[in-house]
Design a protein that fits this description.
About 20% of the residues lie in helices and about 35% in strands. It is built from 1 helix and 4 strands, in the order βββαβ. It has a 4-stranded mixed beta sheet with strand order 3-2-1-4, with helices on one face. A hairpin with a 4-residue loop joins strand 1 and strand 2.
Length: about 80
């Protein structure tokens, strides 16, 4: 059985995080700066690439991603 993790895409801080725990309340496992300049708005493509990097890191660390919070930023509808 794999451990569970959550990916959070945060538009205000322009970061993507991989966080341990189904609800994303655990330890920070990985973080990506989508845009270092807060005045620049990242495109859906930038968010999608950050999401993919987090998913790849989850596989590498042997975590199962059970939730993606802020998926709309990457153009993913639930």
């Amino acid at each position: 059985m794999m451990r569970k993790a959550c990916i959070k895409l945060m538009g205000t801080t322009k970061i993507a995080c991989l966080i341990a725990g189904d609800l994303g309340m655990g330890r920070l496992l990985y973080i990506i700066d989508v845009s270092q300049d807060l005045s620049i708005i990242p495109t859906q493509e930038h968010w999608f690439k950050a999401l993919q990097k987090c998913q790849n890191k989850a596989v590498e660390l042997k975590y199962e991603v059970t939730r993606v919070q802020g998926a709309r930023l990457a153009g993913i509808e639930r």
